[in-house]
Amino acid sequence: MMSAIFSFLGGSAFRMAWGEIAGYFQKRQEHAQELERMRLQDELERGRFDRDMARLKLQSELGVKEVQIAGDLALQKTEADAFVEAIKSAAKPIGIAWVDAWNGTIRPAAASLALALWMFALWKAGFVMGDWDRDIVGAILGFFFADRALARHGR
């Protein structure tokens, strides 16, 4: 009988007790692993949230910059168009004879006066041209010849 009791305790009861003890430690280990998994998941979520917030902030800033650049470009285009229109309208006769005559003679008169002053300075120097005089002659010749060549090609 004693051997039957030992057999019973050694077989079923021991396996049952060992199963309970092993189950306790296994559950404890699974619980610790689950807590660690949740902690890591929280870190990953926090990192993803921070990246998403940084991305949204950058997109917002870029959107604001894009709007500013578009506004600046529109303003520059408006200013350029206004300048072109002002240049076009400055060359048009307005219909008042003496004003149109004045506008037609002011540029040639200013150029003639500048030329006369320069010739007077050259005459005083004995018609000896310095570096500045040669630069002026080159600029004037380049302007008139380039102006005619470009006008001939429609530019």
Give structural attributes:
single chain, 155 residues, mainly alpha, 3 helices
Structure, described:
It is a single chain. This protein has 155 residues and is an all-alpha fold. It has a domain at 1-92. The chain has helices at 2-91, 97-124, 131-152. The longest helix is centred in the first third of the chain and has 90 residues, at 2-91. It is rod-shaped and about 145 Å long. The relative contact order is 0.02.
* Structural class by helix and strand composition: mainly alpha
Number of strands: 0
Supply the number of helical segments: 3
What is the general shape? Answer: rod-shaped
Main beta-sheet annotation? none
Which percent bin holds the helix content? over 70%
Order of helices and strands: HHH
Radius of gyration: 48 Å
Multimerization state: single chain
Strand share of the residues? under 5%
Low-confidence stretches: none
Distance between the termini: 124 Å
